[in-house]
Every structure is written in structure tokens, then in C-alpha cells.
Amino acid sequence: MTDNVEILRYTAFTHDPEGGNPAGIVLDAGTLSDDEMLALAAKVGYSETAFLTARDDERRAFQVRYFAPSAEVAFCGHATIATAVALAERLGTGPLLFDTRAGEIAVETEIVDDVLRATLTSVPTRSRPAEEKALDETLAALGWSRDDLDPAFPPHVAFGGNDHLTLAAATRERLADLDYDFDRLKALMEREGWTTVNLFWRESDERFHARNPFPVGGVVEDPATGAAAAAFGGYLRTLGLGSAEFTVIQGVDMGRPSTLTVSIAAPDGRSRVSGGAVVIQDA
């Protein structure tokens, strides 16, 4: 039975309850089945809900699974940040270790300028060129053409816990005008094993704008995607582009502005993704 399960609701990569990406959090999910977790995630309706299926508070180590409304995902960045902030509020700041289906994720929580922030270190990232056929099918589903892409950033499939097709828009206007074929893109993404399509526009080497369609999770778009930001760090590192530390602005076109700070943490391409999270008071 799930009627008595306590579900926390936070929004990540913001300090404003009206911004960021909302996430559900279940801190005591050890007795829940897969079907029950999926049903709860669908009931919550956010892009992901995090479930702590095992916990060792003394070691600050936790087993975490992530469910979207229609599927489980191996890793979710914004729900990781939200969960880390919720735990730090209860256990105190310091290091946390999350055992996820993508691998172990170290998270550091700290107070910066009187604000609680969390920084996750991803699994090793990697990036490879996208296949031409899949790229053409994606552009058709988006209603884009190759002329809409920035040739300075080749299309890749980037990994930072999940695979994300990564496409650079040639203009901010192209990025803002997003109206895609949900079912067509979902079927393609399921076939290719992509979690989101990370669409971005380069404002500068230190500042990028992003949008992330997420139809495979039953969600039109993610307001902030930490896993895609981690993968994007690996993408830029592979290509030798951008800066070693940069900001991703996401959610603006949805009315939920989010700020993700990304840096390359290690020679193996692990990315560090930082942000805050706050309780959604009226949830």
C-alpha cells in the first residue's frame, strides 16, 4: 500500500519555488515494489521522483532509484540535487554517497553565502558522433532542418549517466521555438536509448542556454536536466570546446528559469554539476 507514503516535493537548480525543476522525494522507500514506485511517480507527475530504497545515515550512504511518470531512469541530476538538499537539511551538510543504477554518485552539500547548495560528481562521461539516419529522423520530429544547427558543434550522443542526443541550435530564436511531434520523437528515442534530447545555444564559452524534450518519461520538456548538463560537460571536453567551468540556463522558455553550474572534475571526464533546491510549500 502506498497511501501512507510521505512524498517530499522540492524544486532544484533554483532558490525560487516558482523556478527550477520539481522533483518528488521518498526518503523511506525500502518496502516499495517497482510497480508501486512507478505508480507514485505517475501520481506526483513531476519529470522524476527519487526513491531511497536503502539508507545508512551514519555513513551518509543511500541507494537511490529514479522514476519518471512512465518509466524508470538510471540517473536523474535534478532529483539528486533535490534529494541531497533534503538530506542535508535533516542530517547536516557534508558528503553524501548515492548508489544509483548508473553507478556511484558522490554529492557534496554546503552552505554558500547563507544558501544550501549541492554538487554532484557524475560517472565518467563520454561522447560520440550521432548517426546520420537518427539525426535526420530527429530533425524531422523536431520540425528542424540542418540549417537550424550550429556547425561549430557537431551532433553527438553524450553520456553522463544516461545517453542524450546533443544538438546545437544556430540561434536563440530557433531554440525558443520548440513544437515537436511527441509520439514520433518518443518512439525514436526509445529505439535509440536516449533519455532526453539536449538542445542548446551558445551565448558564450561560459554560458549556454538549453532545452530538453523528455517524451520517453511522459513529459514534454524538462525545466532543468542535471544528467544532460553532466553529459554536456563531457561533450564539450571531447570536442575541446567551451570552458572548463560554465553555466547552463534552462527552463526560461517554460517559465521555470533554472541555473546549473558545471565543471570538469577529473581527467576521466567526470562532470560536477551544482545548484540549490527549495521546498515547494503548497504542494
From TrEMBL:
GO MF annotation: an example: isomerase activity
GO CC aspect terms: cytoplasm
Keywords on record: Isomerase
Catalytic residue positions: 48
Isomerase listed as a keyword: yes
Source taxon at top rank: Bacteria
One Pfam short name: PhzC-PhzF
Family label: Belongs to the PhzF family.
Name of the protein this chain belongs to: PhzF family phenazine biosynthesis protein
Organism: Streptosporangium becharense
Lineage: Bacteria, Bacillati, Actinomycetota, Actinomycetes, Streptosporangiales
